[in-house]
Every structure is written in C-alpha cells, then in structure tokens.
Design brief:
11% strand; alpha/beta; single chain; 545 residues; five-stranded parallel sheet; Rossmann fold; 4 domains
Length: 545
C-alpha cells in the first residue's frame, strides 16, 4: 500500500528541516511530498500534489494556519490537518476544533509526541481507506448489482453498442452464459387489457408476470436470456445447430395465446432474423420490431417470424451497417492506420457479396448519408470536405470499380477526420483565449480562482486544467502569477505608485506576499527593482548627454 502524502507548512525553514529530520516518516507510513513557507504557497502545492495530510504552523505571513485549514477543508473534504501553535490560547484551540483539524499541538514540537499522533492518524486513514475499499463489501455490492449490469449489457447488445471483440470480456465480468451456435431476438408485447382485470393489477406488474410465465414456458425448450426494454419483454433465444424457426415461432405463438387467456389481454411476439454472432443482435432486434409491425396488420397468429413475411436477404449485405459504425468511430477518435484498416475491411466484406458495381454504388450512397450526418453534427465546412459539387450521389454513379470506391472513401474520411480534429483544437483554443482574456481583465481580483473562471466559462475544473496546461504550457496558477508579475513590472516602471498600491491593483491583498512572490520570481524585491531601474535610467540619460 502506498504511503500517505504529507505537506509541511511553516515560515521558518529551520522548523521544516527539523520536522523532516526528526521523524521517521517512511516507517510511520508517510511521505513528505513538499513544503511551503506560507499559506498561499501551500494552497498552490496542495492543488498540484493533493496531499492526504497537511502539517502547518498557525502563525505565518500572508495567510495563517487557521485560514489555510479552512480553505483546504472546504476544497478537500478528506484532507487531514495537524496544527502547530506557540499560543496556548483557548480561542485558537476552539477555532481549530470548529474547523475539525485532527490535532492541535503546542510548541516546542517533540518528535515522540508527533510520531505518536502520526501513528494514530495512520490507523485512522487506514480505516477510512479500508472502508472505501472493503473487498467483501465491494464484492457483495457487485453481486447485488449484477442483474442490473447484465440487463444493461443485453440492452447494449440490441442497440449495437458493443463490438464483437469486447463481448467476451463482458460475459466473463458479468458471469453470463451466452454461448450458442445461433441467436435470435424475440419481443413479447402485452397490449392494454380489453376489459377490467378482476384484481386491478398495475401494468408493470403484469409485464413482470408475463416475463415469469414466458420464462417458465421456455424452460426445457431452449436456453435464453430475458430482460425488459421500453415496456416489452425481450428474449435472446440461444438456438442449436439444427434449429427450426417454424417450431420456435409456433412455440411462442402458443405461449402468447395462453398468456392472453391468463391475463385477459392480447399478447403478441415478433422474432427477428437468426445470426451466429452476438454483435449482430441489433439487426435481429430490428427485424423483431418489424415483425411486430406486421402483426398489427395480420389477423392470424400471435407470433410472427420476420423471414416468413419479408423476402430473404443476403445476410452479408447487412454487415455493412456494422462496418460503417466502426469507420465512423475511427474518424472521430481513432488514428489514420486504424481508419484505413476499417475502410479496407469494409471493401473486402462487400466484395465478398459478389454484386454488380451498381449495387456497390447503392451501398456507398448509404455511407455518404452517414458522412453528411457526421459532417453536419460537427458543423464542418462541406465545401472543404466534399469539394464544389455537393451532389455526391451523382459523383458516386461515376465510380466504376471497388478500388475507386475505396479511394473515394479513404480520401473523404481522412478529410473529415482532419476537420474534426481541427474543430476540436479550435474549440479548445477559443476556450483558452476566453480564459486569457478574462484573466487579462480580472487579474486584479484577489479572489480570482480556477473555480471562479470555470464557472464563468461553464466548464469543469478538471477539463479546464488539462487543456489550459496543454495549450499554454503552464498551470492556471502559474499563468495568473506570471500575468500579475508582468503587470507589476509595468506599474513599477511606468508609475510612482507605492508597492502596497501596486499589490492591491494586481490582485494581492497582502503587500508582503506580493513582495515575496516578486522576489521569488525576479530575485529582488519590488522596491529594489524600482531603485535599480531608476539608476539604470539615470545612467542611460548621462550617456546620452
């Protein structure tokens, strides 16, 4: 288990050195990740290092230990704070209790006392961490959640949101037996009762009863998984090598009729096409929905199998939808190599269908529709991507080979990919420009913080921090400090205002802290800088005479 991170805060370097040297941090389960000499520095370090424990002096320049503790507790609820104090005063102790600091220690600091406090704090932190990561509880919670997770997995399958190569992982994680040569989706739909049911059962309870009744009726006939989706009971039927869909349809027809008599309402079923891959169940589900539509028009039979009422289609022809989805995904988030691979796979699969070039063109028109939709969703420049002639359908009819189709798709998809990345970069740059503009106007606000600017820009702190560092090469705090220091230089050079006035103008309510930050950046104090600049100016004036 990793050691807990400790941040030390004291304006006396000797005290910090003493505490680091006298305590065996490693054996106690802690690691000192840094130190600060005032509260302002401590807040900056805490944001960068996220310590578990802060050990701070109570009396420091710019921001005292109590103010620091209040700010840290407000921002980091779980942070633990130990306060050193040279003041045996009730008011200080009472305020520390109010802030809920872990310990309030009077100076001088004794290594034995601090070590004992840290030992107890380690036990407390371990208990908190153990409570969060209690394996037995997590296992129990996971097992209790499995029915919901499984249903979400099944729903994702029929929505086509899971690729074939990820399905096996989900089956293992969610402990699902879903292995069979073939699969088919069946939708069980219960219509509103035509007459009042004797005991006035709520619709949702009737659907639960229908699922239970159908589950019991299918036991022994075939393996299956059932779940609720949009008010219907959905079944994934697992079929054997020698499956018979007429027999399966008849079985569901009988179940519907029996359920209708029991529940005093009409129960109907739709069955989609049969597939040998779980990733194809979205198409079986679509077929089952279409079968339900046909049932509305038919008088005979309560269960309808889509292949009995629609012309049989070449199953390979359906594959292109799935491949187009993968191509779209690679355009949005993939790299060039994977995008080219998906396009080549797509061409290879439609080539296997062995159709005429005209039928290939028809498939490509479907792809073009998806390209239009994708470009529109990102508000991309159609002229830039598709050229002057936006009537792509007429262009496609001029393509006379599969290789020509491949070349067209590759070029168009790469253009869209570049445009999307450009749009994302532009969006980030616009956001950062707004942030820089805001800082440029409000740097004099002593309360300016990352939370305040994110509220103004309506973005999360985590996202903003990431893109700000990426685009500017600096953290928000470093950028703000640099801006304030640049403004300070301008005011020191161009005005005769006192340091405390300049301090307030650039956002530092504490003049001494302004001097501290200035000296830390430039190596000299503001007053020394101004004096040197005046001497330099006088020297330059003398030389020019």
């Amino acid at each position: 288990m990793n050691n807990y991170k400790v941040l030390l805060v004291d304006d006396e370097q000797e005290v910090i050195n003493l505490v680091i040297r006298k305590i065996d941090w490693e054996s106690l389960g802690f690691q000192v990740i840094g130190y600060a000499q005032n509260g302002e520095e401590a807040i900056e370090l805490a944001e960068l290092e996220t310590p578990d424990v802060v050990v701070t002096d109570i009396k420091m320049p710019f921001m005292d230990g109590l103010t620091l503790s209040r700010k840290l507790k407000k921002k980091y609820e779980d942070i633990k704070i130990i306060i050193f104090s040279g003041f045996d005063e009730f008011e200080y102790a009472r305020e520390a209790i109010k802030i809920e600091v872990e310990e309030y220690i009077l100076k001088p600091i004794h290594s034995e006392e601090l070590s004992e406090i840290l030992r107890k704090l380690k036990e407390s932190l371990d208990k908190e961490r153990s409570a969060k990561w209690n394996i037995a509880k997590l296992q129990q919670y996971y097992e209790n959640s499995l029915p919901i997770l499984r249903d979400q997995f099944f729903i994702s399958l029929i929505q086509g949101r899971i690729e074939e190569n990820f399905i096996e992982n989900y089956k293992i994680d969610y402990q699902i037996h879903l292995d069979a040569p073939y699969y088919v989706i069946a939708i069980m739909h219960m219509k509103d009762p035509k007459e009042k049911v004797q005991y006035e059962i709520r619709p949702e309870l009737m659907r639960v009863s229908l699922r239970q009744f159908t589950d019991e009726s299918l036991e022994g006939y075939c393996s299956f998984k059932s779940f609720f989706y949009f008010g219907d009971v959905i079944y994934i039927l697992m079929l054997s090598e020698d499956y018979n869909m007429k027999e399966c349809t008849d079985k569901l027809d009988k179940i519907c009729k029996r359920a209708g008599r029991i529940f005093h309402t009409e129960v109907v079923a739709g069955l989609g096409k049969v597939y040998d891959q779980l990733s194809m169940l979205q198409y079986s589900y679509e077929g089952a929905k279409n079968a339900m539509f046909y049932k509305e028009e038919e008088e005979e039979g309560q269960a309808v199998y889509i292949d009995e009422i629609e012309p049989l289609l070449d199953e390979k022809f359906v594959l292109y939808d799935q491949n187009v989805d993968l191509i779209i995904r690679e355009i949005k988030i993939g790299d060039k190599e994977n995008l080219e691979k998906q396009i080549n796979d797509f061409i290879h699969k439609i080539k296997e269908i062995k159709r005429s070039i005209y039928q290939y063109q028809i498939i490509l028109m479907g792809v073009v529709t998806e390209m239009y939709k994708l470009a529109g969703s990102y508000q991309l420049d159609g002229m830039e991507i598709f050229g002057g002639n936006l009537d792509l359908y007429s262009q496609i009819l001029k393509i006379e080979s599969l290789d020509g189709i491949r070349q067209w798709m590759l070029g168009t998809c790469m253009k869209i990919r570049r445009s999307i990345r450009k749009e994302r970069t532009n969006t980030a740059q616009v956001l950062i420009q707004k942030a820089e503009d805001y800082i440029g106007v409000h740097y004099g606000d002593s309360d300016l913080s990352i939370e305040k600017i994110c509220h103004e820009l309506n973005v999360s702190s985590a996202y903003f921090s990431t893109i700000f560092k990426r685009e500017t090469g600096k953290t928000f705090l470093n950028y703000l400090t640099d801006t304030r220091m640049e403004k300070a230089i301008l005011l020191l050079d161009g005005t005769e205002e006192k340091s405390y006035v300049i301090s307030e103008k650039i956002g530092y309510s504490e003049p001494n802290y302004f001097s501290y930050v200035f000296k830390k950046k430039y190596g000299i104090s503001p007053s020394k800088y101004r004096k040197l600049r005046l001497e330099q100016k006088e020297s330059d004036d003398q030389e020019s005479i």
